[in-house]
Amino acid sequence: MNRLKQTLKKCVAFGVTGIMLILAGCKSPAGFVSNDNEEYNARMEEARTTPFGAYPETIEYTLGKMTSVNNSNMPENDTYTDNAYTRYIKSVINVQNVDVFEANDSQYDTNVSMVISMGSLPDIMVVSSQDEVEQLVEAGLIEDLTESYNNCISDRIRKMYESYGDSLKDMVTYDGKIMALPETNITDGPNLVWLRKDWMDKLGLSEPHTIDDVVNIVKHFISEDPGNNGVDASGKPNTVGLAVDTDVTGECGYSSEFLLDIIFACFGAYPKQWIMNDDGEIVYGSVTDEAKEALSYINSLYNQGVIDNDFLLRTSTNICELIENGLCGSFFGPWWAPNNPLANAVSRNPDADWQPYLIATDSDGTTSYHSQNPCYKYVVVRKGYEHPEIAAKMISVMFDKVRFDCTDSEEFKNYYQLNVEPTARPLSINVDYNNALSICYRNIDATISGRKNPDSLELLERSFYDACSEYIKNANKTSTQWAAYMSRIKACSLIAQDNIKVVDSLYFKTTDTMKSHWWRLKAKEKEAYLKIISGEEDISYFDRFVKEWNEQGGQTITSEVSESMK
């Protein structure tokens, strides 16, 4: 088998041909072996039909493996086929991955597209879109996982899935059959405004509650220079305004930094989202009257210098450098912003007191934000594979047993301390409760305050509790401890409040017209938004953009989305 693994790794370098040859020859390296022994057969049946039953012999499965840079931060000598996750999975259910290909980011998606087009899949792999699942279903290339889901998804994992309502199950059900196992994209809540409180204190400024408060604070940061950044040769302040990414707003996937969604929400606008308007119609949020009003306001902020006037030239790396070097004291970002870029900023300057604030978007003091796609990745199993239940069993082991039964595992604790990435797992996904952030925050907060026993925390919560406790107790705090406390306690306490409303994003698939026109319409949208914000075009240009957007496929796409939602 070692020779087989070496051969598999070599074949990756051969591209399509190598992958195809390996898949053709290795459909099931160690599948079911007939045995008349009654005990053996009973154990095999238990393994096939329960979440945690162990196979009587090691079952090897071929895997398309998503990886990451720096070996996913795993300890030295750990690999994608031999690490804390694979060893534990083998010890519990006795299965082992044999990676057909290992690739990260876009190269992984390219490899997935290749094996789909060849019609020759590894036994198990993760795909990155619902469209790919549909393609595989229509081609008859993947297994029906209904029985596997019913038998081998643990009760706790089932409750995690159910916390998203019917949305997750609906996304993987075709003609009444569950054809893939979804990951979960937990609710990140609204973006917060992150501000240099040490600068605010120096200037005697109160904490913000509205966007007007934020604008006032940023103006003072620039004009009064609490960071002592001075001016350039032309007399322009070196302190910049709100850091903004050229994407301007987020799409319907994971949360991102340096975006202006909260400002748009102040006007009831949700760009890049398919939402329901007041008339009960599905509309694309980038082309509404509310979006136009928001853009006009954002242009005024740009003209006042409240938004960094060089944002069109910035990369995300450059923005992070501004923050780390103390040249920027304000940006909108999610709860996890302390991990990146703020941990580096605080490490470089421990006096930089970055704090999060929740901004009201509505007149009644509540904060509205659009929901995210509840699932971005899907686990699929090759049609005809002898043990399709393995996928469900691994999900149950990784996201139930590891987290709730391995709280004393030094190996897994070490993984969290090393910030080992999720790509170290055989299945590079996450499964958790929809409100996992609030659950984690409340459990850690209760433990810190003495209302809960630390031994009752699950593995992830315990790792964050330990870091937060060290932050509270120690005079010499590390940036990692600071990041854990600021994200998991300070930021999450804000997004766990009751004065937050969710506007549902309704559509995450690709219509027929989108396949040929969407990339062009997205480029047109980005160009129009940037031109209006920067003043290259006045606000009347928005009407021209909307007209052309509709004429060039947008209206047809809107009709397709509406029809699919009936």
Automatic annotation (TrEMBL):
Keywords: Cell membrane, Lipoprotein, Membrane, Palmitate, Signal, Sugar transport, Transport. It comes from the Bacteria. Gene3D superfamilies: Periplasmic binding protein-like II. Residues 1-24 form the signal peptide. PROSITE patterns: PROKAR_LIPOPROTEIN. PANTHER family: ARABINOSE-BINDING PROTEIN-RELATED, POLYGALACTURONAN_RHAMNOGALACTURONAN-BINDING PROTEIN YTCQ. This is Multiple sugar transport system substrate-binding protein. The lineage of its organism: Bacteria, Bacillati, Bacillota, Clostridia, Lachnospirales.
